[in-house]
Fold:
Amino acid sequence: MLFRSQKVNKKMYRAGMASILSQLARDGRLAVVESLSVEAPKTKLLAQKFKAMGLDSVLVIADTVDENLALASRNLANVLVVEPRYADPLSLVFFKKVLVTKGAIEQLKEMYA
Structure:
């Protein structure tokens, strides 16, 4: 199977991202949290936190990704933690649930509204 890439202009990209985010919200796959942090850079702590929330496949868009969160999340198979500027359409569609911090929501509004 051959994949071709196609250049998408900025205006279309922004409209596409806004559309995907609003569809996720309508489907109940987008959740806004105050903040997300872990006390220590331990994968087990973050895994327990997501299990308690009932999440198995999650994309986390955080306004600031501190070192503990980055280190704790990098070894979890179905978890991706990114800042708003690194969120891409493929990741938004791929993960079952998208968690966004309140600060990141503001940044996303500025970027795609």
Observations:
- The chain is about 45% helix and 15% strand.
- Residues 10-27 form the longest helix (18 residues).
